[in-house]
Amino acid sequence: MTKIKLWISDIDGTLMNYDSSYTKKMAGVIKEIQNTDVKMVLATGRMFQGAQFVADMFDINTPVVCYQGAVVRTKENILWQALVENKIVREIIEYLRSKKVHTHIYNDDILYVEDNNKEIMDEYCLGRGIEYIHISSFDEIKLNNVAKVLGVIKDKVLMQEVKDELSCKYKNILTIVQSSPVYLEINDIKASKGNALKFLKDYWNLTYDEIIASGDQDNDVDMLQEAKYRVCVGNNSKALEKIANYHCKSVNSDELPDLIERLVLCE
User: 69 exposed, middle or buried (CB, 10 Å; 0-12, 13-18, 19+)?
Assistant: First the structure.
C-alpha cells in the first residue's frame, strides 16, 4: 500500500457538525496527524476567516481551500484563485433579489449582506469565527475580488428552481452546487475543491495514490475523484455515495477518525 501523504477534508458535516461540535476522537486524530509528516488540508465552502478559524483551532498549518475551492491560501499569501466576473456577480444579485433569496457576497475576503436576517446570520456565523457587514444595498459595493455568491434557500422547491435556472443560464461559466440542504454555492466554473486539489498535487508533487479525501455533499464529488481513498460521510449526497470507496454513517460517530487511524496513522 502506497503511503498516504495528504488527508484533505471538508469541514461542516464531515469533520464537525453544522453547529461546530465534533467528537473527542476526531480532535485526537487531527492532533496525531500534526505530529507526522502527513499533510492535512481543510477544503470548505466557508470564507477564509471561517476556514482559518478551524485550522487555528486544530493547529493545522497547511494552506486552506476556501470559498468552495475558489481560493487556496495561507494567512499571508493567495496561492491559487478563480474569481467570479464582476458583471456576472451583478446579474446574479438581481436574479436572487427577484426570487427573494437571502444572499451573501464575498468580496475581498469580506462577507456582505443587504438583508440582515438575524435568524439566518446567527445560524451561519455561530461558532465559525465569521463576521459580516450589513449594508443597505449590494449596489454600494465596489466589486474587486468576488470569490463566491451564496444563496440561503430553505424552501426545497425554490432551491431546485434556482439551482436549475442558474445552471442552465451559466452553463460552462459558473459552478452551481449545494453545500448543505439550504446553502447554494455560486462560483466561477474553475472554482472547485477538485481543481484546488489538483493545484495542491502539483504544489507538493503528490500522486493520486497518496491522497485520502473526505466529504459529505455534492460539492465534494470532484475532490474525492482526485483521490484514491474516497470517504463519504453521512447520506446527504447520492452522487458522493456512488463514487466513494469508504462510507461513514454520520459526522456524529467516530467512524471517520477510526478510518483515518487505520489508513493514515496505521494504528
Answer: buried
